[in-house]
Structures are given as C-alpha cells and as structure tokens.
Specification:
The protein is α/β, with parallel strands linked by helices. The chain folds into two domains: 2-72 and 229-402, Alkaline Phosphatase, subunit A; 82-225, no CATH class. It is 34% helix and 19% strand. It has 15 helices and 13 strands. The chain has helices at 24-27, 31-36, 56-63, 68-71, 76-82, 122-136, 185-199, 203-210, 233-237, 248-256, 275-287, 300-306, 310-334, 381-386, 397-402, and strands at 2-8, 41-45, 92-102, 111-114, 141-147, 150-155, 218-225, 241-244, 260-261, 293-298, 339-344, 361-367, 390-391. The strands form two sheets. It has an eight-stranded mixed beta sheet with strand order 9-8-10-1-11-12-2-13, with helices on both faces. Strands 3, 4, 5, 6 and 7 form a five-stranded antiparallel beta sheet that branches. The radius of gyration is 21 Å and the shape is globular.
C-alpha cells in the first residue's frame, strides 16, 4: 500500500459574507474531492492540542504522527534544522521575520502593515540580512538568512519564556502591546529598533518603495525554542517516508524524523507554486523512488488566509484538487498501485481573522482498496463534521490511515 498525505496548510475557514455565507472549501470547484468523498471516510480531528498555540509547527507535527506534548520545543528550532544551523544544548533559536511597519515617530507606535514584507524575494532578503549581520551579530546573537521573509536568530546561552507575538497574528494592528517582553525582551526590542534604522534607507528598500512594493524595514522576533529531537519515522511506522514542502518548518520536521526531503524546483510556498511539479514528484517518489509514504505540504492557502485574500485561497484549493490530488491519483492508478490518500489542513486560517485558530479540521481518507464511505457528499468542513467522527488526539490519525492495508 502506498500512502500520500495532501496537506493544504490553513485550508479550512469560516463562512464568509464575500462568498454568500460559504467557506473557501465550499466555494471552490473541487470535482476530484467531490468524486472521492462518497467512498471515503470523512471526519474532524484536533491538530492543535489544548493548551498549545495554533501554529503550523504543532499542527504539522500532529498530522505526521508526533505528539506535540512529547516532542515540541518551539517553532524556530525546527526551521533552524532545515537551514543547516547547528544548535548547542543551551542555544535558543528565534524566527526573525522581515516585516513592513507603517507610520512615523516612535517605534512603539507603528503598525504591522505586512508580516512578509511583500513576500520579499530570497535574494533581496539575503542581502538585507547579511547587511544587518555586520551591525547586529555579536558574541550573544547571530543572524542567519533563510527564504523570503523567514530568517533565524540564535541566542547563545539564551533564555526561553519570553513573550513574543507572531507578526501574522497582528496584521494591521498597532504593535504597542505586542513588543517583546521577558528576560531577553529588552535586547530583542533594541535589535528590532536598530534594524529599522538600518533598513529604511537601504537601496533595496528604496527601490522597492519606488516600485510600489512593501519595504522590509524591520526585523521581528518570535517562535523561540531549544534544540529539538523527534523519533525516527521508519522505526515508528515501519514505512519509508518523504516530505515535499517549500517551507523550512516542515523540512525541519522531516529531517529530524529521518524522512527524505524531496526538493521541487518552482515550489514557492504561495499560490504561484508549482502544484503539478509537487504532485509529480510525490507520485514518482512512491512509484519509482522506494518510498511508502509521502507528505505533500502546500503553504498557499495559509498565506492567502493571512492576507485575507479569498479569491486566491479558493484558487489554491482548486489547484490542490484539480492538479495535486488528481495527478497523484492518476499516476498511482496508471502504475497499478494500491494506495491511500489523506486530505486535510493542519489548522484553519480564516480570511476574516488573517491568523490561525485552534478549531478541529476536516479530514478525508480515501483508498482504492475498499469503500470507506460514511455518508459524506463533498469534502467540506460541514460535511466532515456531519459524519460525527472526531479524533481528539490529532497525532493518532496517522494510525487510522496506516491501518488500511
């Protein structure tokens, strides 16, 4: 049996006035999922355990079968692993976003205009981070360039327990009440302020403003954590697994679990990603690459949710349906494989809220080996909830999937 998990990050939503009281899943044209649903098991599951903040780190860990209560040590350390950063036992890693702050005057009175600095290119961002390194790196702190707006700060002999707010949680809000607090908070805030002084007049940002783009005019620190460890996926499941994703967070989880990371040219982490390229890479890994299980992560619906971009969120869902699921299904059937598909989000990212929530999410398990139908007509939030199937401990859903042989 071959297993493919098709994960639309943040795909679940709330009903929207802009779509006539429907969710993005309900509004999207999804003929492939609609065709699978009557013969599939649908239900809901809790990916974010009670007491945890609703992040993609915790949620993706759950979907992959790892109990966050046992394994989670923070978000940024997972990304640091993917970036090739070696963390010491007493190091603390933090996500360092390049953001756009709006307004003039005191830093504390500015507004979070864009948590991604207009989806700044990796090349531009690398130049800005390397510029900041010359001013901000010291014996205690080191900046590392990453992808697009996502970067890393490592604090030597650092302290955890600081109050740090994800910038995507405060879009369009004044940052006054969300500045770093705690043992290291004052140092982080000082670095953020200094970064704004340095970045505002950098030629890259002057050019971006002239082109009508959002400048990357400040660092923003969040997601602190310490050196992580995960169980070996093959030892845990008996399967050889692989992961396809454009974001370091999911890549880091894969590497820690000794899963194969499968790079795809053209994978961007947004709605312009190469959906077909990801699907073909997943199918090839299962058919010809010696893998039993592939986790295909698509960030696009989440990014659109954070921007309140309903149209492109619907578009992304339609691409996941009509390109990714369709291609993987057809390729596996062409190869005469017995297969099982799990389709789900990691968490909802409602367009109206522009941030994550902890609500349970809908899942669909389909196999060409037998009929699993439990009364659902489509893959939507309401249809999944209507079946009455609910998995409280999200990290156990993988057991439900892998019992299908």
């Amino acid at each position: 049996m071959k297993y493919a998990v098709i994960l639309g990050d943040g795909m679940a939503d709330y009903k929207l006035p802009a779509t006539g009281g429907k969710t993005c899943l309900e509004s999207a044209r999804t003929p492939v999922m609609d065709g699978l649903a009557p013969k599939a098991e649908l239900g809901t599951f809790r990916t974010v355990p009670r007491g945890f903040k609703p992040g993609s780190d915790v949620a993706n860990m759950s979907v992959l079968g790892f109990d966050p209560a046992k394994y989670y040590t923070g978000r940024s350390p997972l990304e640091a692993v993917a970036m090739g950063i070696s963390l010491g036992e007493t190091d603390v890693a933090l996500r360092a976003n390049l953001v756009t702050l709006a307004g003039e005057g005191d830093y504390e009175q500015l507004t979070m205009a864009d948590y991604s600095a207009g989806e700044i290119s990796t090349e531009e961002a690398a130049e800005l981070i390397n510029y900041l390194k010359k001013e901000l790196d010291c014996d205690e702190f080191t900046l590392y360039p990453g992808i697009s707006y996502r970067h890393c700060l490592v604090a030597k002999n650092g302290a955890t327990g600081n109050e740090l707010t994800p910038p995507h949680d405060i879009s369009d809000k004044k940052i006054t009440d969300y500045l770093p607090k705690g043992k290291t908070g004052a140092k982080y805030l000082a670095m953020m302020k200094r970064s704004r002084e340095l970045l505002r007049r950098h030629p890259i940002n002057l050019k971006r403003v002239a082109e009508g783009k959002n400048p990357a005019d400040s660092l923003w620190f969040w997601g602190e954590g310490t050196k992580p460890a995960l169980a070996d996926f093959t030892a845990k499941t008996g399967l050889k697994g692989g992961v396809i994703s454009a974001v370091d967070l999911v890549k880091g989880i894969a590497l820690l679990a000794n899963m194969r990371f499968i790079p795809v040219a053209g994978a961007t982490g947004n709605y312009d990603t190469d959906f077909r390229g990801k699907a073909l890479a997943a199918a090839d890994a299962l058919i010809n690459g010696g893998l039993d299980y592939v986790y295909v992560h698509m960030e696009a619906p989440d990014e659109c949710g954070h921007h309140g971009d309903v149209a492109h969120k619907i578009y992304s869902i339609e691409q996941i349906d009509g390109v990714v699921i369709k291609t993987i299904k057809e390729e596996l059937e062409r190869a005469s494989e017995r297969y099982c598909l799990l389709v789900c989000p990691d968490h909802p990212t409602p367009c109206e809220l522009k941030t994550h929530v902890s609500d349970p999410v809908p899942y669909m398990i389909y196999t060409n080996a037998k009929d699993l139908g439990n009364g659902a007509k489509r893959y939507t939030e309401d249809e999944a909830a209507r079946t009455g199937v609910f998995v409280e401990k999200g990290y156990t859903l993988i057991d439900r999937l892998l019992q299908i042989k």
